[in-house]
């Protein structure tokens, strides 16, 4: 497989599986994916969300949840443009 | 501790499921009142009204019926998956609603509730399991948001990032549903904050979504074109970046509001198209927007006075009335606002919105308004509540700020669903009955596993009574006579018109003096049989003279005594001291109640201790219990005279019989035996051949067990206040309907198994044995005052219709007669009954009743810690933090009774200007208790606890004593202290990575020893002490480390740590070398130091510990990870989907023979881990777990095979089919079960329990118990898969774990 083919294949796969990485993946991209996954996990598990909401003294769990989703977007580097 | 083998196998059983309800929806899921006598038109109206509520946590869902103004539980469905979204799906022509679920199985599940005969149990059936994505909670999985079109035409699913899917749903036949292939809408790099469904009536379905793309917030409308079958992004509007909330509004054009800019102009082609409106919530304001972008109606959210935080909207409810509608919006401070949108008459009917203050209730995840005027708030923290609308509020718009009302203005509280979420502080306060204390929303909640005895009247009697019988003739509604017997006296009480008095001597001819009554029973239509030691009397009630007249006298042979007797309607058996049994029978045909003795007596060569017959018109068997530890069943069959009074079966018992009783339910005849060694045994008697089977034993304590039968108890009776209300209602009604209604109720109860016999077991404590839903429960009886019953009997009067009992209490001097009722029975799905003890804030009136209806207390105090005293586990100190964070409330209780404070007038003391992190009680080296509280200001406050117990005097029953806390001094620390534990005569406090032992000083606490832990430990979150020799340290990230105390150098030496980073939240020792702990991702694990290493430590400690390096070469290469010489190995691992906050090792729970581990989870879980000791136990449970986990595949494959073999044959005609292949449904036509129907959502339960790491040596008891919910044919099928088990055996084994160990 030529490098161009490999590159194309990788892009196709990456389009499908957003978190995909390879040797040229930058640290920023990788970190951005980790952050997004982490924030998503925190807001998706009801126990973790509650743990966080209580620890932050948040007035409502929904507020914490929205904050976490918004944080997923905070790192504005585009993970797809490698 | 656990045998030779190093493996520890635990059986995990959730005793109380978590109560963090995150999803809820309403609909009409199932017809529950179809047997009611309402006419058809009435029920059709009901059908359309959505009066059922489905609420779910991430792991189970519950169905409630709200049509009667209360939360009536219909079903509880455990799921072994994480539910991520739930919504109702109403099809136009379908009589009941479907339930759409998405879960971490990656499936979209369409399911429906169905009731299964014969008992009418309601179960959830999966109809479709549509795979969407990989399993797990992933940011790209379209399972996070789920919206359903209002007419059930399609479902709209969205992931947090990028993916959106739309399914078109079609109805098949009367109650079937199918979905088409998904339509995709992908927007890369976009996050979805919220989605909403728009009301467009029968136009193309429209959904709105709040999206975030690289810092820009958009409101996007998606429209599904049903004609072209594709989904289009119809409009997108950039909005303010504080957007956080989205909801769809009803179709405004229906309310004469102009939805287009100018009604004369035609915009965007078709004017008939409905322009849907949505409401977007921002910080401090909301905005109403429409699809076409004509309107941006901005409405500021009223601000609370003195609140600087931005106000946002967190949930909503829409109430549509005939010609207008309003929206209830809840702010993040809990205030409810009423939003009205009206046509602006001056502006050609364009919409205009007003917002007004409605009420204040706790913050909710969801609000639901029911058509019968109720509002359900699915509250984020603590109790869910059901309100009733009192008024619709005034519509005065609020400008600027407002002050929230402290009482309910427009709502009234109807019902509270007591939840334990969040469960931050907990403690086991007693093991028999199993009691846990938890702080919950300003109050202390005790979770008790037992059956309440509610005392109505109690009074002393002047006979030293030991025995008690109540008499009721077959024609009576209520009991008429009560016999109390001491060793030589008998007292007879008569009830008349609700009052009770001694039966006058001239009114009866019973024997009352100089003989001991052995037995009293009613026979025939109006006879009473009194059996005394030396005499038997039959007394007949003469209705004319209202006297009890003697009809028959019978004496045993000279020198022989009567030792036991039992009777039913027509038979009487009397056991004599010479081992003979005399048998009498009433001639039932002549109606004269004349008693005839059978001439030949049967002789048993053993000493008779008890006799029992089946309580029905004529019993075919007589059970005889003997002192020689045998139980014999004699035949009394009329048509089998050869075997008459011959032994037909025999059971050898472990000890001499002390008491013997037989009860009868619809299905079974049960034999209850109390033995003198404290063992209770229950077996079933086969009606046809008299054989005994299904024997269950339970040890109740080292005292002989005597039994009392309460033949008919309603198991669903709750606390008395509800009952009284019900009765009042009944009285209002016509008397005729009352009786029929009651009769109906009773019949219904009997049918659903809600009514049945109870056997009271009197040993050291009194226990209740009852069977519900074919499971046996032997639970302690709870009495509010000290005392113990020696005998009880059923006793119903006009004032006490349901569950009335009479009891003799002999703990104090002389006997007392107590009348009361059994209530609050506990079951598998409701293992604990909650008892709230209120400590209201200062200035408030402390009321006895549980909830002040006019007022819902805001969240004032959150639990911080509950501490037990080492030498008295019943004594508990409660530490709570105020919600605003600068007060600490301390209260002290013993056995659920609170001490009064010495200084204030209340039951607690307030410490100002501090916020506690944790606290500990230690004695240091004195005899006084000291309380040390660590605060957020890096201070340790040391208090001297002065406790004065009140003398044991009955006159001041409610007061248990006084306490006071005297502040001694404050000690500054370098770090926030999150865990403390007493160690020897000092207090162990972690500061960063080091462990400091503090001793008591005059001015402050003094550092006595400082020992460093490993370098990686920086934030210690929990500590445990093992017999003052070892400690376990749980770090926030670095898992658990075991340290041993070196008393020569006065320091702790690390001996073993873990190889995995675990975020420890709680841990405790279960033995010297084993710790159990939990992490914040919801795992429970045990770590152990192996036996060999343990002995190495023992022989080398502390001098040559360094030489013990387990991996010596690694020590040089990586000294940082080899700071401890040894490594702990993982013994058990299990995912519970709740963050453990406390572990407790409980010895002898409910007098069991083995210790169990109890844990509490943040979301309200109370669970137990039972160690399994024998190999056979482990093997059979493990194979059951395996087969339950494979049930999805087993049944699906079977269905596939059947369909393959009989393709052309109509499935209905296959006789086998109903029994085997279609075990799930009640409908006769075979609906195909989808793949994964038994786990409902198609999640592999092993994978679920192995969420973060594979399950290790823990058997999932919750999964095993779902076996009990299956039908018999399904059970049989599954048992076939596991060799050598039968359904009865499996059920018995599962039941035994509950009765014996927990």
From TrEMBL, chain A:
Superkingdom as given in the UniProt entry: Eukaryota
One cellular-component annotation, GO: U2 snRNP
GO BP field: mRNA splicing, via spliceosome
PANTHER family: SPLICING FACTOR 3B SUBUNIT 5
Chain segments carrying region Disordered: 58-82
Extent of Basic and acidic residues compositional bias: 70-82
InterPro entries: SF3b5/RDS3-10
Protein name: ZYRO0G05852p
UniProtKB/TrEMBL annotation, chain B:
Keyword terms, alphabetized: mRNA processing, Nucleus
Biased composition (Acidic residues): 721-737
RSE1/DDB1/CPSF1 first beta-propeller domain location: 48-416
InterPro entries: Beta-prop_RSE1/DDB1/CPSF1_1st, Beta-prop_RSE1/DDB1/CPSF1_2nd, RSE1/DDB1/CFT1, RSE1/DDB1/CPSF1_C, WD40/YVTN_repeat-like_dom_sf, WD40_repeat_dom_sf
Coiled coil ranges: none
A GO term, aspect molecular function: U2 snRNA binding
Domain RSE1/DDB1/CPSF1 C-terminal: 906-1268
Matches recorded under Pfam families: Beta-prop_RSE1_1st (PF10433), Beta-prop_RSE1_2nd (PF23726), CPSF_A (PF03178)
Basic and acidic residues composition bias: residue spans: 738-751
A GO CC annotation given for this chain: U2-type prespliceosome
Residue span, RSE1/DDB1/CPSF1 second beta-propeller domain: 466-713
Location relative to the cell: Nucleus
Residue segments, region Disordered: 716-751, 1202-1223
UniProt record, GO biological process: spliceosomal complex assembly
Protein name: Cleavage/polyadenylation specificity factor A subunit C-terminal domain-containing protein
Origin species: Zygosaccharomyces rouxii
